[in-house]
Amino acid sequence: MYHPRRTALPAQGFTIVELLITIAIIGVLASLVLPAIQQAREAARRMTCQNNLKQIAVAALNHEQLLGHFPYGGWGYKWVGVPSRGARRQQPGGWAYNLLPHLEQRQLHRLGDDPNSPTADEEYTRRLGTPRPLFTCPTRRVCQAWPFIGTWPFDAWLFRPAGKLTVAARSDYAINS
After folding, report:
1. Which of 120, 118, 76, 66 lies closest to 97, judged by CA?
2. Of 20, 72, 122, 147, most Cβ neighbours within 10 A?
């Protein structure tokens, strides 16, 4: 009887050394790629900040072309904008409020249109708590309403206290006015 000579079959699969070397190579490649991805994300966030500033500048120029002056700074940070008071020195709202109509935010600008309305303080409060991504630089913070602790002392002859103010929107930008 003839028996063919049996040969050993080649081993199938990976040895543990080959597997460890493969994992190490993947780890090195990942450590090289992740910083590049983070840099690309940060560059995109910086580009968003620059775009926000450009849109704010264009809105300020549109305001100036339409009304003949750049937006006023308002009466101080404790004052909210009142739509019925126009866009000149009698407007207590600051530059951000005055630019809203030029940033396609006319509806937000008109909240509290009638200061004698029983819902005016709720509308002012809603406007103060509405975050606007255009006024937030994503490199610095997330666009959200931030907790508001304390009281908002509106002037009694013009505004009623908005005691329900629990959150407030913030801006990362400022304008000389």
Report:
1. 76
2. 72
Cα–Cα distance measured from residue 67 to residue 18, given in angstroms and rounded to the nearest whole number: 73
Cα 62–Cα 67–Cα 72 angle in degrees, nearest 5: 85
Length of the chain: 177
- Mean pLDDT over 80-102 rounds to 87
C-alpha to C-alpha distance for 33 and 70, rounded to whole angstroms = 46
HSE at residue 93, side-chain half, CA atoms within 13 A, is: 24
Q: What is the pLDDT of residue 152?
A: 57
b/e sequence 79-113, b meaning 16+ C-beta within 10 Å? bbbbbeeebeeebbbbbbbbbbbbbebeebbebbe
